[in-house]
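Bug #77: duplicate submission created two jobs. Keeping one. Sequence:
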Amino acid sequence: MATNNWNDANQRYLMAALGVVREALERHIARSRKKQETDQARESDTAQQALKKAAAAMPSPSALEMLCAMFGLSAFERDLLLLCAGIELDSTFAGVCAEAQGDSARTFPTFSLALAALPEAHWNALTPAAPSRRWRLIEVGTGSVLTLSPLRIDERILHYLAGVQHMDERLAGFIGPLHQAGRLAPSHQALADRITALWSSSANSADPPVVQLCGDEVADIRAIAVAACAAIGLHVGSMSAQSIPTGASELDGFIRLWGREAVLSNCALLLECNELEASDTARASSINRLMERLNCPLIISGVERQRASHKSILTFDVRKPSAGEQRDIWQHALSVAPVKLNGQVPALVSQFNLNLQKVQAASAEAMVRQSASQNADAGAAADFGQALWDACRMQARPRLDDLAQRIEPAATWADLVLPEPQLATLREIAVHVRHRMTVYETWGFASKGARGLGISALFSGVSGTGKTMAAEVLANELRLDLYRIDLSAVVSKYIGETEKNLRRVFDAAEEGGAILLFDEADALFGKRSEVKDSHDRYANIEVSYLLQRMEAYRGLAVLTTNLKGAIDTAFLRRIRFIAHFPFPDTAQRAEIWRRIFPCETPTEQLDQNKLARLNVAGGNIRNIALNAAFLAADADEPVRMTHLLRAAQGEYTKLEKSLTDAEVGGWV
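Kept job's structure:
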């Protein structure tokens, strides 16, 4: 009701103000006709009285008065603006303008008309530096003479005078409003409070300092920005740095438009630089000019820090909520869960490093799944816990499509044929990953320093001995995502690019503690070379950076190599687990053959002991079994030794080896 009352009163006030300007035009017409001004003066007094009455009825300042105060308009500039607005809002204004200018074709206002008809006229209002032109409140049309060119009120200003808030169409395409996202984690609220205090202390400054929020969590940064601005009555509009114009004139136009919009909407700008390429120097220069020249609240966000030559910039690092804060967030989010979780929240916090929004999304998704299952039995809590874990995996799933391949783990312990020492090492790895929160946080090892807390493993052995399968088994056992890193995309010949790609991999995977598999990693993890030139020095820097990231990574990093001797000894010292995958002996090959065919596959008279005489690794055994299955399916027969013989011949040809009688004698 209060808003409606203001809108109605604002409309009446605006029309009364237009009436005063209209009568000024009519007095000008009367003077030009040399008529007596007595009656006109009486009418003017009536218009002024109507304006005073409308002003008295305003519950708060009108849009016109606020606009004049915001941009410092003089009385003449105020009337000039109303003159242009009258053409849009009052159908009779066009005829009055034409009559006042003595030309039926000139149905539009001009500076010449304003200078002649409006009181307190001054030439300064015509200059480009005048508020009405600097802030584009009015637009000057084409014409050979400035004072005779048509004038028009800007559409955004017209809507504002009418009491309608609508972002300028020239900005709305790439600046969007942000809204309050609920409560913040205490550490994030503290950041918001610091920004609020900073801007409050500089409230009287015409040039507020730029605030920079550094981090890769876009949702957290947005929430902090909105909370900080809301505390001092500001709205927030967000914009990608990719949308900033790079041309000088276009950038100047944007700065003026946003500077005006910031005042009209009482709004701060959040400029998001997360996707800005380091090579985009033109846009980086535009960001610098924007920071230097924009005199309204501005927040810059991104991973990389921006710098300005002459502008004060205050930088804050935005980190994810602490483990304790995440526990509180989870407890609050799960307070309305359909079942009670006993002790699962610490496991979630241990594995997934999620912000407030992702915790809420994962909780909501799991509750929807639980509600759909209508499971009320004793296993409901276990089912809900599993749904919650899977929902967290989805929320934390990194975006690594161009650098890694996500592998859906299907292998289990039953598929893995290894000597007992190697199996024991793999089980120990799983224990370390599962209980790292207890040891690091609850038992205090993390307080001694972050160095060496990353869990890493090196799997060595010739191709086909089960190194990748072992990583799959661990991922399946721990119910974690597994990513095979594409080294051809990570390793770059350009200086600094490999390090940048590695940072992307680890940063993206950090949130969910995914298992990173650097398969055949000799090229990346090889021995560091003697420094003979700048390329050697930078290659060694990349190796050192990788060591640091592996030591701090909260997930599991697995390296595989065919040649353990090719790995830098500095890596070997810092890798927590090293497992050698031996070439399988006859007994192990027989066990692999016993497990290789799914139970659904029809087989007939297979002799695993004879098959074990094939001197190949497990990967080759799988290839032979798979090819034999296709041969049997084509013949509409169960898999027999004859099919396996043909498949073995094909595999040996691929390996450039010959089958011997000792291997296949007595098969058929």
